[in-house]
Q: What sequence folds into this?
C-alpha cells in the first residue's frame, strides 16, 4: 500500500500497490502491520456499507464524541464519491481544516479518517457504494454532525448544492458551535 498524508494531520489517502497480469490485479487492501508501521490504528470492530442511488447524494459530516471517537477506513466499492475529513481536534495543527479525495471503484483508493475528525461524502455518479471499517462500536448517544455547507470550513463540494441530503444532516451544527 502507498500512504499519502493529506493536509489534515493524521488523514491519509491509501492507494493499492497492485500486482497485475492478464487476469486482472491483486493487492492488499488492509494490513495491520503496515498500518501500525505508519502509526495508524490497526484494529477495527465494525464494517459499514452505504448504497447510494443518486448522483449528488451527500452524507455527513458525521462523527462520534469521545470516548466513542472512531477511526474510519473508507473505500468506494462501486461508482465514485468525493470523500471528506474535517479536523475537530483543538490541539491539532490542522484544526478546522478539511481535506478531500475522490474514491472510486476504478482508482481503488481509500481514505483514513483519524479519531476526532468528522467525515462525509458526496456521490459523483448514480449507484455508488461505500464500504468502511470503523474502530469503535456505534454509540447513538455519542453521534454528532457538522453542517456540510458551513462557511467557516468552506468545503469545495464537486456538486453544489447536493441533489439529496437527509433533513438531519442538513440541520447539523455549525463549526463555531462545536464543543469537544
A:
Amino acid at each position: 500500500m502507498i500512504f499519502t498524508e493529506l493536509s489534515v494531520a493524521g488523514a491519509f489517502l491509501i492507494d493499492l500497490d497492485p500486482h497485475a497480469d492478464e487476469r486482472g490485479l491483486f493487492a492488499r487492501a488492509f494490513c495491520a502491520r503496515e498500518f501500525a508501521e505508519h502509526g495508524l490504528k490497526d484494529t477495527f470492530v465494525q464494517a459499514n456499507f452505504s448504497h447510494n442511488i443518486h448522483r449528488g447524494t451527500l452524507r455527513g459530516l458525521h462523527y462520534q464524541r469521545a470516548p466513542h471517537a472512531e477511526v474510519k477506513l473508507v473505500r468506494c466499492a462501486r461508482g465514485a464519491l468525493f470523500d471528506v475529513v474535517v479536523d475537530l481536534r483543538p490541539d491539532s495543527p490542522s484544526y478546522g481544516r478539511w481535506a478531500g479525495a475522490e474514491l472510486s471503484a476504478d482508482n481503488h483508493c481509500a481514505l483514513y479518517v483519524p479519531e476526532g475528525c468528522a467525515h462525509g461524502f458526496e456521490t459523483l455518479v448514480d449507484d455508488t457504494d461505500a464500504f468502511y471499517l470503523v474502530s469503535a462500536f456505534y454509540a447513538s448517544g455519542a453521534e454528532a454532525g457538522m453542517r456540510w455547507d458551513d462557511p467557516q470550513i468552506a468545503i469545495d463540494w464537486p456538486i453544489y448544492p447536493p441533489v439529496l441530503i437527509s433533513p438531519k444532516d442538513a440541520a447539523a451544527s455549525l463549526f463555531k458551535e462545536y464543543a469537544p
